[in-house]
Amino acid sequence: MSTQILSTLPPKISVVIPLLNEADNLQELYSQLKAALEPIKKSYQIIFVDDGSIDSGFEILRQISLSDPSIQVIRFRRNFGQTAAMSAGFDHAEGEVIIPLDADLQNDPSDIGRLLEKLEEGYDIVSGWRAKRKDGFVLRRLPSILANWLIVTMTGVKLHDFGCTLKAYRREVIENINLYGELHRFIPVLGRQIGAKITEIKVTHHPRTKGQSKYGISRTIRVILDLIMIKFLMSYATRPIQSFGLIGLLSFLVGFVICGYLSIGKLFFPAGVSQGWLSYLFSQTSLVERLPMLVLGVLLLLTGIQLISVGLISELVIRTYYESQNKPIYVIKEILKFEDSE
Ligand code: UDP
Ligand code: MG
Predict the structure, then answer these.
(1) Are residues 175 and 131 in the same domain?
(2) Is the CB of 226 within 6 Å of ligand 1?
(3) Is 82 in the pocket of ligand 1 (CB under 6 A)?
(4) pTM for the model
(5) Is the domain of 265 the same as that of 159?
(6) Average pLDDT of 10-24?
(7) 326 Cα–ligand 1 center, Å
(8) Could you list the residue range(s) of the whole structural domain that residue 196 is in?
(9) Contact between residue 120 and residue 86 where contact means Cβ atoms under 8 Å apart
């Protein structure tokens, strides 16, 4: 009876593993995971997400899952990418703590225990930091150092290694964020926005011994584009008219002053002024000499109007975004009420 109840309770820990063509690593990964999770003495589930593998990976996972009820395997119809695979794993994860991990044995399952201990000190996200990363320098570590520096500078979330998949998240963090594109590495940034307490610990990293890496240098560019988008979402998403409007208004005002000045000259001093202090403002210039200024003025006026319009349209879009999803513009941690404390 008691085992029955136990087995229907949600597990405490969900390990989520995105994988693409990692057949040679799966068996070893499975035994290392078991060896790491059993001593923790907490209920757990392991969710493998097969992101459209074309090797024998899924068959291996099917065999493993037949004999082990803690295993779940999700198979995509085609390759949707690591972020999508992680996202599917998160959607199916039932644990209070969710821990993603690479399938290629570059992350070490034996770090899971330490991540959990750190989380229990009261954090919502514990980020793994591959302090001694075992990847090539020019194509991997150097772009990663630059990207991490850029992310820290632009978002203010001070972590050393956003790219490390191995991190521990409290369920609430994952439930409150949506992942698109390559966003999995920005979960701590999205988490910070909803008020998550974040820290990091060093984790072990191994060189890849079997299978191939799925990424090249082009990933860095995609990460930078995502960063720009995240920065935009962080700073302006709930108040677009404030940011677009401000720049628009400035541009409009400068344009207005320039055009006003040119119009006054044209209307009141068509031939220019040759003497007195007014001659500094309205000297005898030809139309050709005034043309660049006129173009600038008109350009600034138009830009200003455009930006203000974009701001207003964004306000409409944002309202649809939040209201269609019934998404509040705040995140509540807990509510205390008189009835609860009775
Ligand atoms: N992966 C995935 N879908 C993809 C690309 C990668 O599920 O489209 C998985 C891959 O199998 C591995 C993890 O994501 O488990 C990290 O990929 P990889 O090791 O190739 O990245 P690297 O460590 O070289 O940065
Ligand atoms: Mg790898």
Answers:
(1) yes
(2) no
(3) yes
(4) 0.82
(5) no
(6) 96
(7) 34
(8) 11-237
(9) no
* The predicted structure's pLDDT at residue 340: 60
Residue 333 lies in a domain: no
Best of 58, 82, 101 for a ligand 1 pocket test (most atoms within 8 Å of beta carbon): 82
Confidence of residue 1 (pLDDT cuts 50, 70, 90): very low
The reported pLDDT for the residue numbered 3 is: 44
Looking at every residue in the chain, the average pLDDT score rounds to 91
DSSP string, 301-339: HHHHHHHHHHHHHHHHHHHHHHHHTT--SS-------HH
The stretch 8-34 carries a mean pLDDT of 95
- Nearest ligand by distance to the CA of 74: 1
Q: How many domains does the chain fold into?
A: 2
Answer whether 70 contacts ligand 1 (Cβ < 6 A): no
251 with 209, same domain?
A: no
Q: Which pLDDT value is given to residue 270?
A: 87
- Helix, strand, coil shares, percent, the chain, to 5: 55, 10, 35
**43 in the same domain as 131:** yes
Q: Does 84 contact ligand 1 (Cβ within 6 A)?
A: no
**Which residue bears the tokens 């039932």?**
94
Burial status of residue 120 (CB atoms within 10 A of its CB: 0-12, 13-18, 19 or more): exposed
Which protein residue's CA is at the shortest distance from atom 2 of ligand 1? 82
